[in-house]
């Protein structure tokens, strides 16, 4: 079978090995989780868009995070809901669909970092250069930061998936619950040295840039707060930065766990569960931690429920 023909053939997805007695419970939990993620994240986006008092750089940049979270959750959970009620021998996916799924899978993970990086820059300017905050974080800067966050992610992930798509294929089983880059190049019997080298470089550069920018930024913010004797300024800095840092750490830890399990092939089910949690925990926690703990958004939400009551 030639490569062109194979690309449009069906691939069998291994999926999760869920005990029969817990299938219905797993389905209900995942469905409720997906509804929660969708409603709360989209709700916060709508609230920020319609409320003029929230048209601030911090909230505009944050608005991209729940959008990305909905994309990440929508990538995994609906497919899993379908596979849970499907016989394991009938969990098929086309090659083209698998490629798109892998692309958006890695795009979600990458933009989770890049969006939080530009949010880190916003907090740095707000605390370290407050008098020039409005002039620096203008509409032009917001557009540049947003395009940079998404543009860099699209470029890096595009190359990552492109290197796997170029390979010919001799296998037809995806040994995972969803398609990712590793699942794609493992379909090939050719050498995947280039894929491994780029994938490792991609991961190291992304994590180094992400953790490095956050560490340097918060170190400088901490130095300014230590030197400053203004308690009100320090309190405001601590509140806004702790919220952002909490969101970042949740994303970082839940993202590192699947990478660690990926290096442990003897625990395939643990790797799958860790990957699912990366697409579930941050989207569930972000609207609660960052959205509802932000005073303005919290007041608007409480006002909305009070008004309805």
Q: Helices and strands in order, then pairings?
A:
Blueprint: H1 3-6, E1 10-13, H2 23-50, H3 57-62, H4 64-84, E2 92-94, H5 95-128, H6 133-136, H7 139-165, E3 173-174, H8 181-185, H9 193-227, H10 231-262, H11 268-291, H12 295-308
Parallel strand pairs: 1-3
Antiparallel strand pairs: 1-2
Helix pairs in contact: 2-4, 2-11, 4-5, 4-11, 5-7, 5-9, 5-10, 7-9, 9-10, 10-11
Textual characterization of the structure:
There is one protein chain. The chain has 309 residues and is an all-alpha fold. It has twelve helices and three strands. It has helices spanning 3-6, 23-50, 57-62, 64-84, 95-128, 133-136, 139-165, 181-185, 193-227, 231-262, 268-291, 295-308, and strands spanning 10-13, 92-94, 173-174. α4 packs antiparallel against α11 and α10 runs antiparallel to α11. The relative contact order is 0.14.
Question: What is the gist of this entry?
Answer:
This protein has 12 helices and 3 strands, in the order H-E-H-H-H-E-H-H-H-E-H-H-H-H-H. It has 309 residues and is mainly α.
Physical arrangement of strands within the biggest beta sheet = 2-1-3
Share in β-strands: under 5%
Quote the average pLDDT: 85
- For the secondary structure, the number of strands is 3
Radius of gyration from CA coordinates? 21 Å
Shape: globular
Topology order in helix (H) and strand (E) letters:
HEHHHEHHHEHHHHH
User: So how many helices?
Assistant: 12
Q: Separation of termini?
A: 64 Å
Query: In terms of quaternary structure, what is this?
Result: single chain
Q: Summarize the biggest pleated sheet.
A: 3 strands, mixed
Helical residue percent band = over 70%
**Which regions are unreliable across 5 or more consecutive residues at pLDDT < 50?**
1-8
Given helix and strand content, the structural type is mainly alpha
């Amino acid at each position: 079978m030639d490569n062109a023909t194979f690309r449009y053939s069906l691939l069998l997805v291994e999926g999760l090995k869920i005990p029969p007695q817990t299938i219905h419970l797993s389905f209900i939990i995942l469905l409720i989780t997906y509804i929660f993620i969708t409603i709360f994240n989209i709700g916060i986006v709508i609230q920020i868009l319609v409320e003029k008092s929230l048209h601030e750089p911090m909230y505009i940049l944050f608005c991209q995070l729940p959008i990305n979270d909905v994309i990440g959750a929508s990538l995994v959970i609906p497919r899993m809901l379908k596979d849970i009620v499907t016989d394991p021998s009938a969990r098929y996916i086309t090659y083209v669909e698998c490629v798109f799924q892998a692309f958006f899978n890695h795009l979600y993970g990458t933009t989770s970092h890049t969006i939080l990086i530009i949010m880190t820059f916003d907090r740095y300017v707000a605390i370290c250069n407050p008098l020039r905050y409005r002039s620096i974080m203008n509409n032009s800067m917001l557009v540049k930061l947003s395009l940079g966050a998404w543009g860099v992610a699209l470029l890096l992930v595009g190359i990552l998936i492109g290197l796997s798509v170029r390979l010919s294929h001799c296998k037809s089983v995806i040994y995972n619950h969803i398609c990712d880059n590793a699942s794609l190049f493992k379909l090939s019997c050719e050498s995947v040295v280039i894929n491994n080298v780029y994938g490792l470089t991609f991961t190291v550069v992304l994590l180094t840039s992400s953790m490095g920018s956050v560490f340097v930024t918060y170190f400088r913010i901490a130095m300014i707060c230590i030197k400053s004797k203004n308690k009100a300024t320090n309190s405001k800095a601590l509140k806004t930065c702790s919220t952002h840092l909490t969101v970042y750490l949740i994303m970082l830890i839940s993202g590192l766990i699947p990478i660690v399990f990926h290096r442990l092939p003897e625990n395939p089910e643990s790797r799958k569960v860790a990957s699912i949690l990366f697409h579930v925990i941050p989207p569930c926690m972000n609207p609660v931690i960052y959205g509802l703990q932000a005073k303005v958004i919290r007041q608007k939400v409480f006002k909305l429920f009070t008004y309805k009551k």
